[in-house]
Amino acid sequence: MSGNKKRVNRFKRNIDPLLEKFNASISFDRKLYKHDIKGSKAHVRMLGDCGIVKKKESKAIISALEKVEAEINTGKLKLNVSDEDIHMAIEKRLSEITGPTVGGKMHTARSRNDQVATALRLYVRDKIDEINNLILNFQKVIVRRARENVDTAAPAYTHMQPAQPIRLAHWFLAWFEMFERDISRFKDARKRVNVLPLGSAAMAGTNFSINRKQVAKELGFDSISENSMDAVSDRDFAVEFTFCVSMTATHLSRLAEELVIFSSSEFGHMRLPEPLTTGSSIMPQKKNPDGAELIRGKTGRLYGGLVSLLTMLKGLPLTYNKDLQEDKEPVFDASEQITLMIRIMTKMIDELSLNVELLSASSEKGFMTAVDIADSLVMMGLPFREAHGVVSKLVKHCSENSLQFTGADETTLSGIHPSLPQAVRYFTALDSADGKDVYGGTARKRIITRIKAIERKLNK
């Protein structure tokens, strides 16, 4: 397409209107307009500096591109299916402003293949930075809630069964660590996103003596693609981005699941902020955790986008194929949904109400200090497996007689094992937590040390 001419087939007949509609991507790739214009401006400036187009023409094209961007920003420029994609729509409007003789020179020494790949990389790079900033803000909320709850006792679970007591701060910090890995993963992926494909043209490079380093520097790319065939057909970066999003969504979904469980009436450990819940259409007593449930649900949707990209790529021959048009919607959806999910979860944790009294009471139930008693026996010289068996018998006896550990009489304890009376003593939930005074453990001083280290890092 050039100027106002309608795109035609290379054969005698115009493209079938049905194929034209099927072929068009402007309904979704319009999201790339800023990135496309940014790439085009750098490309045209380089063409002028290299003498491939006149400096006067280069400046006129850049000025026109800025006008086109302003028109799209304000909605003045209407984008139509007949424009096929955002890249052609921008070029069409550019030629209307500058005239086709000047506007038609913008596409010198490039193809839509490397043009589109460049715009998508710029988009993904921006989204990675945006997402990481959102995760960082979320982490700050998590750490604040952890500091507030260093001295809050809570039950911890394995297999969703009461396991051992902890300080609730340790629970919050567990989520911090997950999202810390997510930030690291996005940063690492960004290195592979930040490679300039522009200059690869259709797939073989260009006959013009262009300066790819200049374009890379202006656009902030760390490196330049080494192989033009690979560059125009590479969508590994899109797959990796959607994987990183999916992994972050997995962590959000796990946290959402715990919030749903622990805020239920059966547990009652937490209460979700009302603005992030809804009522029932028929049951007036209900407060539904819709925000958390939607995070769980959307996670599956994001997995679908990842699988879609992988499936699209698995059978593609080199180099560009029209299948690659299907790369954008999963990427756009992933970036939009994950930003909403992180923002909602940030509010949810920030405003989460905790039933400290019930958490503390729950951490004293369920024989959760059994490991502490077993460890006491080990410290007296018993092999751990033997100590484990002794405490198992104690748990069985107490369960059958509705007793706590300290409720068993000395005769009974001695009958189970001679060392047991000395090992059984009252461990509070916080005593139990503080017994795990190892790096990464639940002891108060370990938690405080970790919080201080995190806060130093977050404040940089």
Descriptive report:
It is a single chain. With 460 residues, the chain is mainly alpha-helical. The protein folds into 3 domains: 92 residues, Fumarase C, Chain B, domain 1, CATH 1.10.275.10; 249 residues, Fumarase C, Chain A, domain 2, CATH 1.20.200.10; 94 residues, Ribonucleotide Reductase Protein R1, domain 1. The strands form 3 sheets. The protein has a two-stranded antiparallel sheet with strand order 1-2. Strand 3, helix 9 and strand 4 form a beta-alpha-beta unit. Helix 3 packs across helix 7, helix 7 crosses helix 20 and helix 11 runs antiparallel to helix 12. The longest helix has 37 residues. It is elongated and about 100 Å long. The chain starts with 16 loop residues before the first helix and ends with a helix. The N terminus is likely disordered.
Compact description:
The chain is mostly helical and 460 residues long. It has helices spanning 17-23, 26-29, 33-49, 55-74, 86-98, 100-103, 112-148, 168-193, 212-219, 228-233, 236-262, 290-313, 328-350, 356-362, 370-379, 384-400, 410-416, 420-423, 429-434, 444-458, and strands spanning 153-158, 161-167, 195-196, 223-224, 270-271, 353-354.
